[in-house]
Fold these 2 entries.
Entry 1:
Amino acid sequence: MYFTSNTIAFLDGEFVPAEQATCGVYAQSLHYGYSVFEGIRAYNTPAGTRIFKAEEHYERLHYSCKAVGLPLEYSVEELTRISYEVLERNNLTDAYIRPLVYAATPNMSLKAATSSNLLIAVWEWGKYLGDQSLRLTISPYERPNPKAVPIEAKVGGHYVNSIIASTEAKGRGYDEALLLDMNGYVAEGPGANFFFERDGELYTAPQGSILRGITRNTIIDLAREAGITVHEKFFKPEELRTASAAFMTGTAAEVIGIASVDDVVFEKSFQHSIGGMLASHYHALVTGQAVSRNASFAEQAR
Ligand code: PMP
């Protein structure tokens, strides 16, 4: 349930009942997938409600707007302040925050919008992909070609690719898809980045055909702080046969284990993998608990 009759959303400068936050069917965004958005989480910490990496998320929202020519009239600070207020007005501490910038003006032209609309909605959302290790399958759909779209921008229209890939994978009995890039290298999931573990080190796709996730960056930082080498490099699906474990990362999914990719079953359980250890460090970080990063961490993970 994303909203009830009591939910308040921020829409174009006002806090309004979510039921009244509507958009007309002639909107340019609706016809052409011409919108940008963010997925952010707030956590209940000992210091109160804290939005995790609000600045990074709202800087990415600005970057995404610029990439597709949608004006955004709010600063990072204003967006952050409004987000806290939406949480407060809904009495939410642990919540998912969805800012959406779109063009509501009736406009069937293919010209960039000259004005935009802003929605900030919040709701309670458990881990998007659940907390059981996932069975993935390589998707017949590739990630969009980065020469066709600004792939590092979080554009509404890009998610048609995610929807069809995820639906196709589930239709074949898997939990989620894993998409390759146009050169046949493993890129990412429909809404999360992908890592694998081999010989005590981590591997993940580099910049190119992925959304460089904020969770991905956080996990890379946590791993490196713990003395674990992280390689950002291109790899083919065949290389997964040499992996002992894998996991995915995203704001909505957080850190989730991968049991298998097609017929490749990983030997380590998530709990005993580097990903499992980093998941608990990630949880401690976002919820503001003391993080014990000792020298034995890297050793334990091996
Ligand atoms: N890749 C894609 C395609 C995504 O939609 C997301 C979710 N935003 C991610 C990766 C993970 O990004 P983040 O960690 O910033 O949520």
Entry 2:
Amino acid sequence: MLNVALTKGRLEEDTMELLKNRGYGIEEWESKGRQLILQDRKKNVRYFLVKSADCLTYVEHGVADVGVVGSDVMEEYGGDYYDMLDMDIGICKFVVAMPKGKEANYESGHLKIGTKYPNVATKFFKGKGFDVEIVKIEGSVELGPILGLCDAIVDITETGTTLKENGLTIVDEVFDINAKLIVNKASFRIKREQVMAFIDDLKGE
Ligand code: PRP
């Protein structure tokens, strides 16, 4: 049996669609409700639905042999696993955004940066030689500069709608993001055949 950790939320629907297109469809997916474990007996695959950072943990600990997770989370948390496949889903990017009209302050002086990704933000601004203070925010990051908690945010944007509707504008691009398939190191040895067959099927080979 191959244990696969899938990231809940934004990436979930695209991952499930891709799996279905590759013959891994599970009937109950549409009606799964709050179920967190789903089994495909035909393919001998068991799926868990987990939060993005936990996907790394499940794979690192070998509870999941394989995980599908965003490269944003991998970059933020690191970890010990094989990064095996770039997927054409979960395409978005990390940007620095500020309230419209405040862009002029971006390169001048001390900046307070609100973000869910303190490691990514710290590395980015260090690379630029900017003097910044990082404020960790857990969600609705766009509120930070509006309410005066921070000057700018480092966050993910996909459609750009959230930034636009909250009067923020992109002042810098950090890096592009996509979903990746990661593999537990021991599983790669012990279940190599099943892991590789799964990867090849997802690649469409
Ligand atoms: C992410 C991100 C932005 C939004 C961007 O948040 O942090 O807020 O999506 O998407 P858009 O460019 O398509 O508008 P998410 O929806 O994951 O929720 P959160 O704010 O609770 O973290």
